[in-house]
Amino acid sequence: MNSFSAKILIIGVNPYVLLPASLLKEIFKKAGKNKGPIPVCGTINEKKFTQTLVRYSGKWRLYLNTPMRKSAGIDVGDIANVEISYDPSERTTPMHPKLKAALEKNKKALTEFNKQIPSRKKEIMRYINSLKTEESLERNIKRAIGSLTGKDKFIRRN
Questions:
Q1: Domains of the chain and any CATH numbers
Q2: What is the C-alpha to C-alpha distance for residues 158 and 146, in angstroms, rounded to an integer?
Q3: Is the pLDDT of residue 158 over 70?
Q4: pLDDT band at 155 (very low <50, low <70, confident <90, very high)
Q5: If you placed Cys at 146, which of 85, 92, 151, 153 could pair as Cys (CB 3.0 to 4.6 Å)?
Q6: β-pairing, 47-56 with 59-63?
Q7: How far apart are CA 66 and CA 63, in angstroms?
């Protein structure tokens, strides 16, 4: 693990820190790439995190979501003490059994789901997995199927 300290900045509504160039090079080398999202893990103020480095607006950023900041007791403008390394572990988003069953019942929706780019599939599965009540789960699975078959909107998209 490599460590550094950085001021927490914000772009739009998204707090982040910038990594030192030498540390980025080391992470790129371990990841075997310097494009696309790069999985990382580490600590912020000694609190563990799992996150993804992303390049946005010409800079590689480690975005600090609300749970990360709350756990570490820091916010925008504070200095974060970060230990970070490339995370080679597999990251998969499971498909909710009810979404799987609904897709299997609707072949057109399944075909369209399978045509989606990986990040869109993950977005749908994460959203469905995050729902807390049976009512919202049922309603949103129905909307997802409707969206995939062109009949409804889901997650702000047609």
A1: 2-86 (2.40.30.100), 97-148 (no CATH)
A2: 9
A3: no
A4: low
A5: 151
A6: antiparallel
A7: 10
Q: What letter does residue 149 receive in the DSSP assignment? A: T
Q: 3-class secondary structure for 12-57?
A: CCEEEEECCHHHHHHHHHHHCCCCCCEEEEEEECCEEEEEEEEEEC
Helix, strand, or coil (residue 100): helix
Q: How far apart are CA 92 and CA 53, in angstroms?
A: 17
- 90: pLDDT strictly greater than 90: no
Spatial separation of the C-alpha atoms in residues 156 and 158, rounded to whole Å:
7
Amino acid at 8: I
User: Which phi and psi angles does 140 have, rounded to 5°?
Assistant: -80, -30
Residue 124 in tokens = 């749908």
